Amino acid sequence: MSILQEVVAIVLFASGVLFMLVGSLGLLRLPDFFTRTHASGKVDSVGMMLCLGGLAVHEGPTLSGVKLLLVIAFVAVSSPVAAHALARAAVRSGLRPWRGAPDEGGPDR
Amino acid sequence: MPRSPAPARRLSLGLVGRALLLMALWLALSGLYDPFHLGLGVVSVACVLWLDRRLPRAAGASRGEAEVHVLRFAAYCGWLLGQIVLSALHVAGVVLHPRMPVSPRVVRFRSDQPNGVARMLLANSITLTPGTLTVEVEGDAFTVHALTEATARGLLDGTMQAKVARLFCDRPGRAVYDVRWEE
Questions:
Q1: Residues B147, B108 share a domain
Q2: Are A84 and B127 in contact (CB < 8 Å)?
Q3: Which of A23, A65, B63, B65 has the largest CB neighbor count within 10 A?
């Protein structure tokens, strides 16, 4: 295994972990369900894709590497569908989006 | 609807082509190449093809409608991948910003798309682009939740809607019309 391959894998995995951390932080900080869905549906899924990409680079062109790429494609397709399904279910059950005052800079919780 | 004759660029795999594609997927996932497991693969592929024949009728769409321009689709996937990364960076920036500048808006618009696959693709693409989330799709009406008004306006310029429509037909209809902001 070449050093370059290892470095790329580590960088991808580390940035993936960073994105997932920010996604979790967003889940805590953002004011309502819909904005939190933005955080979990996008930041988390990119984080997961980066982690899996790092693993795929680490694995190299093997059967497991191909499987990891397939998993990445699956995450890319399924995560927006999941986010949309959650948001639609929320709207249909009568949840209204938060409309805060922008100048206050945050929700009062 | 008049369709341009461009059969060479459209993805139209025959039965054999789809069987080979599925078998390749089976081989990649299985990793066991003895006669028993290969036989299981052949049976599975046959089952999937049989189910697939029933699907378009169940969804109420004809097969020819959903054919996609392969090259345009590949280019679109590349563009979308970039959008996904931008989207994650955008939301991450909002989350990490000390004052967290969110003022969510909900906007409703209509977009002429050639078929259901295009509408599905557009709805998913909206969710993947920076700061916007598809909440509801009813016919050709899309309801979108945006983190800020600016991100919603970025969506309403119709670039993505036209891109998606052009994957399936050469003369798409109106990209965005009947825009309504929800209070």
A1: yes
A2: yes
A3: A23
Number of helical H runs and strand E runs in chain A: 4, 0
Residue to mutate among A63, A74, A84, A93, with most B CBs inside 10 A, is: A84
Q: What pLDDT score does A101 carry?
A: 56
- Average pLDDT, whole number, for chain B? 80
Q: Can you tell me whether residue B107 is helix, strand or coil?
A: strand
Note the ipTM here: 0.74
* Tokens, residue B155: 């969506």
Q: Using an 8 Å Cβ cutoff, are B133 and A83 in contact?
A: yes
Residue B43: Cβ within 10 Å count:
10
Which distant-in-sequence residues (6+ apart) come within 8 Å of B143 by Cβ?
A91, B106, B107, B108, B134, B135, B136, B137, B182
Two structure tokens written together for B158: 């119709």
Domain with B113, as residue range(s), is 69-182
**Scanning every residue of chain A, which has its alpha carbon at the shortest distance from the alpha carbon of B104?**
A99
Residue A87 has its nearest CB partner, among B85, B91, B133, at B133
Tell me, yes or no, whether B20 and B75 share the same domain: no
Of B81, B92, B105, the CB nearest to A22: B92
> Are B47 and B99 members of one domain?
no
pLDDT tens per residue across span B79-136: 888 888 888 888 888 888 888 788 888 888 988 888 888 888 888 888 888 788 898 8
